[in-house]
Specification:
The structure is a single chain. The chain has 21 helices and 9 strands. By secondary structure, the chain is α/β, with parallel strands linked by helices. The chain folds into 4 domains: 112 residues, DnaA, N-terminal domain (GMP Synthetase, Chain A, domain 3, 2-Layer Sandwich); 148 residues, Rossmann fold (3-Layer(aba) Sandwich); 72 residues, Helicase, Ruva Protein, domain 3 (Orthogonal Bundle); 91 residues, Chromosomal Replication Initiator Protein Dnaa, Chain: A, CATH 1.10.1750.10. The structure holds adenosine-5'-diphosphate and magnesium ion.
Length: 474
C-alpha cells in the first residue's frame, strides 16, 4: 500500500540522483511527508520561502518524480509550517486566506499559487511588516568614480570592478579585500555593490557588517527563526560582508555563515568580504572558513603613496568646492601617510577651522591641525621594529636574537620580542613565531606567559619590560 512516506521516499531517491548533494540537504531533507489522499501528496515545508524556492527551482523535478510514483493525476500540496513565526500566533490569523481560517498553525497552499499572504521573515524588517523587497544597505556616495586609483589599491580596485561587472562570473569568488583601518575597504565594497545595482538592477545585493550579521543571527536563534535567517541570506545574489575579522571566536555565527557561503557559492552567487588582516593572519576563524576565503582572490589595500594621497586630497577639495594652496596640500599629504580616513579628516577639520574662525587656511593652521592628527594616531609598531629595538637594548644582532641558541640572555631577549609583538601588533601567534626565528605559535604563547611570570618574580626582568615598553609607546 502506498503511504505518504513511501511515495515521498521514492521521490527523494529520484531527486537525490538529479541534484547536488548540498542542494538536496538544504532543500529536501527538511521536508516532511504529511498525508496522501488519492494522488495528492501533502508535504510540509519549514517556511514560505522554502515553498517559493522549491517552486522556482525544483518544480519540474518534483513533478517528474511525483508523476512517476502516482501517475498523471499526481498533485502536490504544500503545508507551510509556521514555527511560531511572530512570537505569537495571533496576528497570523489575519494573514491566512479566509478559506483556511481555523487551520492554524499550518497554512496549506495548493500549487500553483501566485499570491500568498504570509511572508518570509526578513531580519531587516520588523516582523509582521510587509516588505519583501530587500534593501541593499548601500551608500551611493561610495562609488568607483570617487575611489581614486593608485599603486596601493590597483589590484583590489580592478578585481572589484571585474566582480561588479560580472557578479559570480569571475574566479574572484569570494573576493576578499583586506588592509588596515581607513584604507578604503568599506568604500570599495560599497562601490562594488553600487555598480552591480547600476548594471543589474534585478540582482539582489546586500551590504552588511559582520557585526550586524552576528547580531541578527543571535536574534534569530532567540526567536527560533534560525532557518528563516539562513534562507534569507541564501537568496542574495551579491552578499557583501564587511569586517569579517569580527567573526573571530564566534563559532555559531561562523558555522551559519559557512553554510550560507557554500550555498551562495554553489549557486554562482557572488560573495565579497573585507577584513583587517590577510586570511593567514586571522585568529580564531575556523579552518574550513579560512580555506573558503582562499578560494577566490585576496587583494590587499596598502597605504597610498604620496601621489595618490595628493589626488585623494584634491578630489575631496574639488567635490567640496574648496580651494587650498598646493603648499598646504603637499604639507598634509607628506605628514599623514598611513590612513586615508585621517587624511580626509585633517582636510575637513582644516576647512571647518578656517570657516568657523574666519581664518584663512595658512600653513600654520595646517601644521596645528595635522599635529593633532598625527599625535592622536598611535604609531604602528611592526614586528621587525620590535626585534630591532629589543636587540639594540640587549646589544646583540637581530640574527642572534632569532637564532636557535638556548643561552639564557638570548632566550630572554627573544621571549621579550615575542611578548611585545603580541602586545603591540595585531599579528597572530603563528605569524609572530614565524617572523621571530621561525618558531611555532606554542613557543610564542609560552614566551608571553614566561615574560608575564618573570616580571612578577624578577626585579631585573621587570626593569627590562618597563624600559622596552617606553620605547614602544612614545
Ligand atoms: P576602511 O573600511 O578600510 O577602514 P573606509 O572605506 O571607511 O576604510 O575609508 C576611509 C575613508 O577614506 C573614506 O571616507 C573613503 O571614502 C576614503 N578613501 C579610502 N580610500 C580612498 C581612495 N582610494 N580614494 C578616495 N577615497 C578613499
Ligand atoms: Mg570599514
Amino acid at each position: 500500500m502506498l503511504t505518504a512516506e513511501s511515495v515521498w521516499n521514492n521521490c527523494l531517491k529520484f531527486v537525490k540522483d538529479n541534484i547536488q548533494i548540498q542542494a538536496y540537504k538544504t532543500w529536501f531533507e527538511p521536508i516532511k511527508p504529511i498525508k496522501l489522499e488519492d494522488a495528492v501528496l501533502n508535504i510540509q515545508v519549514p517556511s514560505k520561502f522554502f515553498y517559493e524556492w522549491l517552486e522556482e527551482h525544483y518544480i519540474k523535478l518534483l513533478k517528474l518524480a511525483l508523476t512517476k510514483e502516482l501517475g498523471d493525476g499526481a498533485r502536490l500540496v504544500y503545508i507551510i509550517k509556521m514555527e511560531n513565526t511572530f512570537g505569537n500566533l495571533k496576528p497570523f490569523t489575519e494573514k491566512i486566506p479566509s478559506q483556511y481560517k481555523g487551520n492554524i498553525p499550518s497554512q496549506k497552499v495548493d500549487i500553483p499559487v501566485t499570491n500568498l499572504n504570509t511572508q518570509l521573515r526578513n531580519p531587516f524588517v520588523i516582523p509582521g511588516i510587509k516588505n519583501l523587497k530587500i534593501e541593499s544597505q548601500l551608500n551611493a556616495n561610495y562609488n568607483f568614480d570617487n575611489f581614486l586609483e593608485g599603486d596601493a589599491n590597483r589590484l583590489a580596485r580592478s578585481a572589484g570592478l571585474a566582480v561588479s561587472n560580472k557578479p559570480g562570473g569571475t574566479s574572484f569568488n569570494p573576493l576578499l579585500i583586506f588592509g588596515g583601518v581607513g584604507l578604503g575597504k568599506t568604500h570599495l565594497v560599497h562601490a562594488i555593490g553600487v555598480n552591480v545595482k547600476d548594471k543589474f538592477p534585478e540582482k539582489t545585493v546586500l551590504y552588511i557588517s559582520a557585526e550586524k550579521f552576528t547580531q541578527q543571527y543571535i536574534d534569530s536563534v532567540k526567536k527560533n527563526s534560525r532557518n528563516d535567517f539562513i534562507h534569507f541570506y541564501q537568496i542574495i545574489d551579491v552578499l557583501i560582508i564587511d569586517d569579517v575579522q569580527f567573526l573571530s571566536g564566534k563559532t555559531g555565527t561562523q558555522d551559519v555563515f559557512f553554510h550560507i557561503f557554500n550555498h551562495l557559492h554553489q549557486n554562482g552567487k557572488q560573495v565579497v568580504l573585507t577584513s583587517d588582516k590577510a586570511p593567514v593572519d586571522m585568529q580564531d576563524i575556523e579552518q574550513r572558513l579560512l580555506s573558503r576565503f582562499k578560494w577566490g582572490l585576496s587583494a590587499e589595500l596598502q597605504q597610498p603613496n604620496y601621489e595618490t594621497r595628493v589626488s585623494i586630497l584634491k578630489n575631496k577639495l574639488f567635490r567640496d568646492g574648496v580651494t587650498i594652496s598646493e603648499e598646504i596640500i603637499d604639507y598634509v599629504a607628506k605628514n599623514i601617510k598611513t590612513n586615508v580616513r585621517e587624511l580626509e579628516g585633517a582636510i575637513i577639520s582644516l576647512i571647518a577651522q578656517s570657516s568657523f574662525n574666519r581664518k584663512e587656511i595658512t600653513i600654520e593652521l595646517a601644521k596645528s591641525v595635522v599635529d593633532k592628527f598625527v599625535k592622536n594616531t598611535k604609531r604602528e609598531v611592526s614586528i621587525d621594529y620590535i626585534q630591532k629595538i629589543v636587540s639594540e637594548y640587549f646589544q646583540m644582532d637581530v640574527s642572534t636574537l632569532q637564532s636557535k641558541t638556548r643561552k639564557r640572555h638570548i632566550v630572554q631577549a627573544r621571549q621579550l620580542a615575542m611578548f611585545f609583538a603580541k602586545k603591540y601588533t595585531k599579528a597572530s601567534l603563528a605569524s609572530i613565531g614565524s617572523q621571530i626565528g621561525h618558531r611555532d605559535h606554542a613557543t610564542v604563547l609560552h614566551a608571553c606567559k614566561t615574560v608575564d611570570n618573570l616580571s612578577f618574580t624578577d626585579k631585573q626582568f621587570r626593569k627590562y619590560v618597563e624600559d622596552l615598553s617606553k620605547k614602544f609607546t612614545v
